């Protein structure tokens, strides 16, 4: 957020901060959230690049289209295991999965 917008919001009485501050997350909780969001974005990016539908990806990982949609949005209740399986099903090498996790939150 640019500083002018931040100043306008604060002047209007809003408190401006990060999700970590708002939710009072610990450092490890914040890191886990960032890792999940990074994996979710990576799965979507890979799926779209390969022109694979959510339904087709769901079949590859033994899940449903609605779970894949939830996975890609970083939805609650989706395991990291399913996210990693989706990455691998789109052809990602384990090294790429590691790279996504290593750069989470940057």
Which sequence of SSEs, written as H and E, runs from N to C?
HHHHHHH
Q: Helicity, in percent?
A: 55-70%
Outline, from the CA principal axes?
Answer: elongated
Instruction: Tell me the fraction of residues in β-strands, as a range.
Output: under 5%
Given the helix and strand composition, which structural class is it? mainly alpha
- Uncertain stretches of 5 or more adjacent residues: none
Radius of gyration: 17 Å
Major sheet summary line: none
Q: Counting H and I runs of at least 4 residues, what is the number of helices?
A: 7
Per DSSP E runs of 2 or more residues, the count of β-strands stands at 0
How confident is the prediction overall: mean pLDDT? 91
- Through-space gap between termini: 16 Å
What does this structure look like?
By secondary structure, this protein is mainly α. It has a domain at 52-106. Helices cover 68% and strands 0% of the residues. The protein is built from seven helices and no strands. The mean pLDDT is 91.
